[in-house]
Amino acid sequence: MSSLWEYANPQKFMRTSSVLLPVFAVAAAISLGVGLVWGFFLTPEAENFGSTVKIIYIHVPSAMMAINAWVMMLVTSLIWLVRRHHVSALAARAAAPIGMTMTLIALVTGAIWGEPMWGTYWVWDPRLTSFLILFLFYLGYIALWEAIENPDAAADLTSVLCIVGSVFAVLSRYAVNFWSQGLHQGASLSLDKKENVADVFYIPLLLCIAGFVCLFVALVLLRTRTEIRARRIRAMIARERMA
Amino acid sequence: MIALLQRDLKLAIRAGGGFGLGLAFFLIVVVLVPFGVGSDSGLLAAIAPGILWVGALLACLLSLDRIFALDHEDGSLDLLATAPIPLEGAVAMKAAAHWVTTGLPLTLAAPGLGLLLNLPASGYGWLAASLALGTPALSMIGSFGAALTVGLKRGGLLLSLLVLPLYVPTLIFGAEAVARGIDGRDTGTPLLMLAAITLAATALLPFAAAAAIRINLR
Amino acid sequence: MELVVTDLACARGGVPVLEGVDFTLVAGQALMLRGPNGIGKTTLLRTLAGLQPPLAGSVSAPTESIAYAAHADGLKATLTVTENLTFWARIFGQTDIAPAIEAFDLADLAGRPAQNLSAGQKRRLGLARLLVTGRPIWMLDEPTVSLDAASVAQFGRAVARHLDRGGAALIATHIDLGFEAGVLDVSAFRARPRRIDSFDEAFA
C-alpha cells in the first residue's frame, strides 16, 4: 500500500504535480468562468443591496482562501518540523504570497463594497481589522523567508513563526471582537444552513468558491514546483563551486 | 541563571547600556502627540490611555534587537548554548532583564506622563496596573522576535515587522483596561486577559525562542 | 573521558563540506586540526561542540564535557576582567577563578574593564575563560590570533598543564604551541561533490 508520505519525495511530487496541475488549472478556469458569468449577469439584483451584492462572488471566496491558506501553511509547517519533508516546507513558502494576495483581494473588495453599504471604505470593524492583522502576519512570514539565506534554517524559523503566529492570530481575533462591535454581518454562508443567502445567489457562489479552491491548489502546485527547481539549481551551483 | 540576570542588568546600567533610552523615547512620544492632535484637553484625555500604551509598546520595541544581537556578535550566545544552564532558561532571564530595564521603568513613569495628556484621575491606577501586567508579555514576545532574527545583519526592521502583529492582543486589552477603568466599567476581563497573555507567553515562548536561537546558531 | 567521532559528516549553509570524519581523542591528548582556509575546520568544531547537528555519523563524549572557544571571546567591554570571568564561572557552575587569572597572568589587569585591554590581553582573557568552565575537552578555533610570542608560549603551557591533569584539546591552528600533539589533516575528509541526477539529491 502506498503511503501519503511518498508524495513528499521531491521527484514523486514533480511527477504527480505535473499531472495534477493542468487538471486543477482547467477546473479553476471552468468553475470560475461559469460562476462569475452566472453570478454577475444571470442573477437578479438583491432588493436591499442593489447590484453591489455581486461583489460577494469574489469577496467571499477570497476571504475564505485567505484563512485556508494560513491553515495550510500551519499544517505544512508542522509536517516539516516533525517529519523533515522538504516539499512540505516549500509548499508553505509557496502558499504564503498567494494567501497574502487573497487577503488583499478580500480587503479591497470589502472596501469597495463597504462604500455604498456603510458610506465609508474603511471601518475598524472586527472582521476587517482581523484581516488587516492577518495581512501583517503574511507580510512578516514572507519577509522572514526572504531574509534568511540557509534554506533549511529559513524553513525552521518560518515554521516556528507560523505556529506562534497562529496562536496570536486566533488571540487577536478574540481581542478585536472584544475591542469593537462591528458593522459587518455575521458569517453568511455555511453548508448546512444556507438561508442567509438566497438560493439564486447560492449556486454561483458555491461555483466561485470551488473555482478559488482549484485556483489556489493550482497556484500552490505551480509555485512549489518552481521552488523545488530553484533548490535544485542552488544545489548544482554549490556543486560547481566545490568541483 | 541568576548570574545571567545580574550581568544583563549590570551591562544595562553601565555606559552605553541603553538604560533610560526607552524611557526618554516614551517621553518624546507623549510630548509629540499633543503637537500632532492639538491641545484640546478633552480630546487628549480621551486618547490618553491609547497613546500611553502605544508609546510604551514602541519604547519597548526600540530596545528589542539588543536582547540577543550583542551576545551573538561577541560570541556569548555560542557559549550560553553550550553552557550547563538550559537555553530556555537563559532566554527567560534575558527577557526578564529586558523587562526590568524597560517595562518596569515605563510602568513607573507612565502615570507621571499621563499628567501631560490630561489622563482622568481615575485612570492612573488602572494605567499602572495594566502596564505592570502587560509589559512582561511585551518583553517575552519581543525576545521571541529577537531570537528569530538574531543571525541577520540588519534584523531590526524585520524584527519590528514580526513583533508588531504579535503585540496586538496585549495592546488591545491594555488600553481597554485603562479606558474602562476611567469610565467606571468592569476592568476584570481585560486585566485577566493581560495576565493570561503574560503568563502563557512566559511559560511557552522561551521554548520557541530557544529553538529559534539554536537554529540561528548552526 | 574519551571523545569518539565516527563517520561524521557536516554541512555549512546547507552544503556538505566534510564527510567520513573518524578519530578518537583520549584524556591527556591534543589534536591539531590542519587544512587550508574554508575547508571546514570551524564547521567541524561547531558540530562537535553541539552547536549544529551533524549530517551523518555520531559524536560520543561524556555529557557537558566540551568547552568551545571561537574567534569571538564572549567578553563584555564594560565589565572588568574579574567580572567577566566570574560570570562565566557561575554560568558553568564553578566558583574559583583564581587559577585562571594566574595561568594567563591576568592579576595586574583584574580590575580593568575589558574594553581597555589590548587585543592580545583580550585573547588571554578569552582563553582564561576555558579554565573557569571546568570542562575537560577544549575545542579551540584559532586560539592564538593576535597573541605575541610570549603569550603563545604561555598559552601552550596552559594547554600542556590541562593535558597533564587529564584534559584533552582539539585545536584548529597552524602554529606550533610547544607541546606534543597529534595532527588531523581535515582536507582528507573533504566532501566529494555528488552528481545531481534527480531532484531528491538537491535536498541533502
Automatic annotation (TrEMBL), chain A:
GO terms for molecular function: heme binding; heme transmembrane transporter activity. Residues 5-184 form the Cytochrome c assembly protein domain. It comes from the Bacteria. It is found in: Cell inner membrane; Membrane. Its main location: membrane. The chain crosses the membrane at residues 20-43, 55-82, 94-113, 128-148, 160-180, 200-222. One of its GO terms (cellular component) is plasma membrane. Keywords: Cell inner membrane, Cell membrane, Cytochrome c-type biogenesis, Membrane, Transmembrane, Transmembrane helix, Transport. The keyword Transmembrane helix applies. InterPro entries: Cyt_c_assembly (IPR002541), Cyt_c_biogenesis_CcmC (IPR003557), Cyt_c_biogenesis_CcsA/CcmC (IPR045062). GO terms for biological process: cytochrome complex assembly. Belongs to the CcmC/CycZ/HelC family. Required for the export of heme to the periplasm for the biogenesis of c-type cytochromes. This is Heme exporter protein C. It comes from Rhodovulum visakhapatnamense.
Automatic annotation (TrEMBL), chain B:
Signal peptide: none annotated. It holds the Pfam family CcmB. GO terms for cellular component: plasma membrane. InterPro entries: Cyt_c_biogenesis_CcmB, Cyt_c_CcmB_bac. GO terms for molecular function: heme transmembrane transporter activity. GO terms for biological process: cytochrome c biosynthetic process; cytochrome complex assembly. The keyword Ribonucleoprotein does not apply. Keywords: Cell inner membrane, Cell membrane, Cytochrome c-type biogenesis, Membrane, Transmembrane, Transmembrane helix, Transport. It is a multi-pass membrane protein. It is found in: Cell inner membrane. It comes from the Bacteria. The keyword Transmembrane helix applies. Its main location: membrane. The chain crosses the membrane at residues 12-37, 43-64, 96-117, 123-150, 157-179, 191-213. Belongs to the CcmB/CycW/HelB family. Required for the export of heme to the periplasm for the biogenesis of c-type cytochromes. NCBIfam families: ccmB. This is Heme exporter protein B. It comes from Rhodovulum visakhapatnamense.
Automatic annotation (TrEMBL), chain C:
The lineage of its organism: Bacteria, Pseudomonadati, Pseudomonadota, Alphaproteobacteria, Rhodobacterales. This is Heme exporter protein A. NCBIfam families: ccmA. GO terms for biological process: cytochrome complex assembly. InterPro entries: AAA+_ATPase (IPR003593), ABC_transporter-like_ATP-bd (IPR003439), ABC_transporter-like_CS (IPR017871), ABC_transptr_haem_export_CcmA (IPR005895), P-loop_NTPase (IPR027417). Residues 3-202 form the ABC transporter domain. Gene3D superfamilies: P-loop containing nucleotide triphosphate hydrolases. Signal peptide: none annotated. The keyword Nucleotide-binding applies. PANTHER family: ABC TRANSPORTER I FAMILY MEMBER 1. GO terms for molecular function: ATP binding; ATP hydrolysis activity; transmembrane transporter activity. Keywords: ATP-binding, Cytochrome c-type biogenesis, Membrane, Nucleotide-binding, Translocase, Transport. The keyword Amino-acid biosynthesis does not apply. SUPFAM superfamilies: P-loop containing nucleoside triphosphate hydrolases. Pfam families: ABC_tran.
